[in-house]
Design brief:
The chain is flat, with a radius of gyration of 20 Å. It is mostly helical and 83 residues long. It contains two helices and no strands. Helix 1 crosses helix 2. The termini are far apart. The longest helix has 34 residues. It is 60% helix and 0% strand. 5% of the residues are buried.
Length: 83
């Protein structure tokens, strides 16, 4: 059946080419949810959320770079392609 309405969970947006743009909002929202439960003083919430967002974003970027280097350079040395 054809519907004209947008159904968010049934018809997701085609954002496969822009996945890296969503890294910062997702890490911000995860940090906010985690720190809202864990923080002792709510006056420190914004500072801790920003710090955790930066940590998560940099961690993901560094892990991505590490996987790239491992697959591109180290894997051919460890397991060369058979000729």
């Amino acid at each position: 059946m054809f519907t004209l309405a947008y159904r968010p969970f049934l018809d997701p947006l085609p954002l496969q080419d822009l996945w890296f743009v969503l890294l910062i909002p997702v890490s911000l929202l995860v940090s906010l949810a985690y720190k809202a439960v864990r923080v002792q003083d709510m006056k420190q919430l914004h500072r801790q959320v920003i710090a955790m967002t930066i940590q998560v974003t940099l961690g993901m970027v560094l892990l991505g770079a590490l996987v790239f280097v491992t697959i591109t350079y180290l894997l051919p040395i460890i397991a060369p392609k058979p000729s």
